[in-house]
Design goal:
Layout lengths: L8 H51 L9 E2 L19 H4 L13 E5 L15 E7 L11 E6 L4 E5 L15
Antiparallel strand pairs: 1-2, 2-3, 3-4, 4-5
Length: about 170
């Protein structure tokens, strides 16, 4: 027997097959875990937005316009009107919400009022705030996930259409 200076083709192929099988099992599970953590983040933010809407309603019980619409990143802070917030972005101008980079978030966030406010607000007329997963960078059925906080404070999640992926109906606890 001579000296061996490397691996045989069979040995290399066996190692590659083992790595491929392990990767095939690990990658989908990793993506599910990442999407679940984004959902938990969205639940927390939607609860904060809902609380901001409710606080503004307490401060301004008879507003001239209902606070609703999609939250967007503000280039500069505006001022709060004398009649309180009129749009979702006014929640930041009136200091009910901190300014954030809403553009790069995994979800679009909305302040809702009686089914108006755009996005997922029209899906539930008693929603105070909701979040809709941005589908451009979501994995599989996760692009269809929505989170709602109702006027009574109940938080729930739903799939905007048929999902094969398990989605808890109650918001995950943080």
């Amino acid at each position: 027997m001579g000296d061996r200076n490397g691996f045989t083709l069979i040995e290399v192929m066996v190692v590659c097959m083992i790595i491929a099988i392990l990767a095939g099992l690990a990658v989908p599970q990793t993506l599910k875990i990442m999407e679940s953590s984004k959902l938990q983040d969205a639940v927390g933010v939607v609860r904060i937005v809902a609380n901001a809407v409710r606080m503004s309603q307490l401060d301004y019980p008879n507003p001239t316009t209902a606070v609703n619409g999609q939250l967007a990143t503000l280039s500069s802070a505006g001022t709060c009107g004398s009649s309180g917030p009129a749009t979702a972005n006014d929640l930041m101008n009136c200091r009910y919400l901190a300014q954030q980079d809403w553009t790069n978030a995994a979800y679009n966030y909305y302040a809702c009022s009686s089914g108006s406010g755009g996005g997922c607000c029209s899906s539930n007329s008693s929603a105070v705030a909701c979040a809709l997963r941005k589908s451009s960078n979501a994995y599989g059925d996760f692009a269809k996930w929505e989170v709602f906080v109702l006027t009574n404070g109940v938080c729930f999640t739903q799939c905007s259409s048929t999902c094969s992926t398990y989605l808890p109906s109650n918001c995950p606890t943080i």
